[in-house]
Specification:
mainly beta, 3 helices, single chain, about 10% helix, Tachylectin-2, Chain A, 4-stranded antiparallel beta sheet, about 375 residues
Length: about 375
């Protein structure tokens, strides 16, 4: 005969319930970064001092965008994008002190062909070390350095179909040379498994190594895209959201979940870059044209598992405030070196001149670099 209410059975049930409850609470806690931790992150990464422009265009036809920073030897290096009307190309610059930069040349150029990426090659270095205050080296995989990029064959500003491709080099990444591109994109808006929010254009991507295999894979790509599968909903199709894909060999990628991991009801959420502060991953990204904020600005989200992200709801990290960034201050790359935080970003002024600027956690003075004088047509606008 079974005694259902025996002390032994009740005790086992109670212990089992406590065990399940503990792991349920622990699981939920690992998906949410507490408000006090988010505030601590904000205090650790904020950069209230704007140094100013560190790289500026040679003329009013050239625009610069999307800095990526790494270190090799005694020097710092930056990849960045240029646009002069035809499309994006990717350049390399060098610095000794993170404030004064020398342009070195191109690493991804236009190709006069019918290839899918002939007129758009917007590159972002992959597998950078993500430790906050670390060495910021770019790591190899299978003897190669890697980058991801969005490409397209249409001419114009982010025109036509844009897809994500992969390139690599076995040469020194601090020397200017053309990186080898895989022949076909790895993610497109025409893929059979494309999600509702990315069925138009795919934009910036950022690839990190998942050392702990939190996702079950070796590499994680975060990227932003736009689209909307809702019928007759053209209004929202330009909204951008951030999603993720995974890979075990850097060449074959699969989408990880169906929904975006960071998004907002209106406007753009884009250009994710990852750092790890203690046991928390921090995603720096930019927002634009939101319901409650004007212009474009830089913010962050945080995660314990690379999948579930807690969004910061406080003040912007960087926003428009100076003549050189009074239209947009957006598209982050944030590092900490010798106790100082450097927040690189794309600065856009009222004449649509675009350059790379930096804000810091310590007052380092002011840059003497500026945009060239706007032409008369721009002055009349």
């Amino acid at each position: 005969m079974k005694i259902l209410n025996s002390p032994f059975t009740t005790r086992n049930f109670t212990l089992a319930f406590i065990f399940i409850l503990y792991f349920t609470i622990h699981s939920i806690a690992q998906k949410i970064v507490a408000p006090e931790r988010m505030e601590a992150i904000y205090q650790a990464v904020k950069t209230p001092y704007k140094y100013g422009l560190v790289i500026s265009p040679k003329d009013n036809n050239e625009k610069m965008d999307c800095p990526t920073i790494f270190k090799k030897g005694k020097h710092w290096y930056m990849t960045y994008l240029t646009f002069g009307g035809r499309g994006y190309e990717t350049w390399l610059a060098q610095s000794k002190d993170l404030l004064h930069w020398e342009k070195l040349g191109k690493i991804m150029s236009f190709t006069d062909s019918t290839q899918w990426d002939a007129n758009q090659k917007a590159g972002y270095l992959a597998l950078l070390e993500t430790q906050w205050g670390g060495k910021y080296r770019i790591k190899k995989y299978q003897g190669k350095y890697w980058l991801s990029y969005f490409g397209g064959k249409s001419t114009g500003y982010e025109a036509g179909d844009l897809s994500i491709g992969i390139a690599y080099t076995t040469q020194n990444p601090t020397q200017t040379h053309e990186w080898v591109r895989l022949p076909q994109p790895v993610l497109t808006s025409k893929d059979t498994d494309v999600r509702w929010w990315e069925n138009r254009k795919l934009f910036k991507s950022s690839i990190i190594e998942d050392k702990q295999r939190l996702t079950g894979h070796s590499f994680v790509m975060y990227y932003n895209a736009n689209g909307d599968s809702a019928l007759n909903n053209k209004k929202t199709r330009w909204y951008e959201r951030i999603g993720m894909a995974v890979s075990d060999d850097m060449e074959h990628w699969q989408r990880y979940i169906k929904e975006p991991i960071v998004q907002h009801p209106v406007g753009i959420t884009g250009d994710p870059i990852i750092q790890k502060i203690g046991d928390v991953y921090v995603m720096f990204y930019f927002g634009a044209f939101w319901q409650d904020r004007k212009g474009a600005f830089n913010r962050f989200a945080a995660s314990y598992d690379l999948v579930h992200w807690t969004d910061w709801t406080g003040d912007n990290l960087v926003q428009s405030s100076e003549p050189y960034d009074n239209t947009y201050a957006h598209k982050s790359f944030v590092i900490k070196h010798k106790g100082i935080v450097y927040h690189f970003y794309c600065a856009v002024n009222q004449h649509d001149q675009r350059g790379i600027a930096v804000a810091t956690s310590k007052d380092l003075g002011k840059s003497t670099l500026s945009f060239v004088e706007p032409n008369k047509v721009e002055q009349k606008k």
